[in-house]
Structure to design on (163 residues):
């Protein structure tokens, strides 16, 4: 009888949240006022999310007077952290100037996100982050960057099968 009650409680419990671990993700930097005609679209890089830093971008050379700002991107099971290990400056001001993390998924991967205020020093708001078709967009236009600036997003990842 106790076994049946424990089993019933286990079946009634909500399923564990999804994870980004093991997923393929393509990371790129984009700048646009109109997404159909970007000023800059950096070379995308694709990796499988695992322990450690997934991306360490360096400048790629000027395109239309713009270049990639050095950034380190660490993706955890339900978290994305961005840090700026070198250089200081301000990101170019455009409608969108930031990062696109496109996860390979056949379903809506993100239920929600939250900026971690204890980790984050960059002046971003919820309006600067959005998702679309398995991609996470982070707009840092006109924000300062440098070794003191960092951003962390905690994600509610859907229980979406690996593609």
């Amino acid at each position: 009888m106790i076994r049946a009650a424990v089993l019933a409680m286990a079946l009634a419990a909500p399923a564990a949240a999804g994870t980004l671990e093991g997923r393929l993700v393509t990371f790129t930097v984009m700048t646009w006022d109109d997404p159909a005609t970007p000023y800059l679209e950096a070379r995308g890089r694709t990796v499988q999310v695992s322990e450690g830093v997934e991306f360490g971008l360096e400048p790629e050379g000027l395109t239309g007077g713009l270049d990639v700002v050095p950034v380190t991107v660490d993706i955890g099971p339900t978290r994305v952290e961005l840090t700026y290990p070198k250089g200081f400056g301000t990101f170019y001001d455009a409608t969108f100037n930031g990062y696109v993390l496109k996860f390979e998924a056949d379903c809506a991967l993100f239920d929600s996100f939250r900026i971690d205020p204890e980790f984050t020093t960059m002046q971003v708001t919820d309006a600067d982050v959005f998702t679309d078709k398995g991609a996470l967009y982070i707009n840092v236009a006109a924000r300062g960057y440098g070794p003191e600036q960092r951003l962390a997003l905690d994600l509610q990842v859907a229980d979406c099968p690996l593609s």
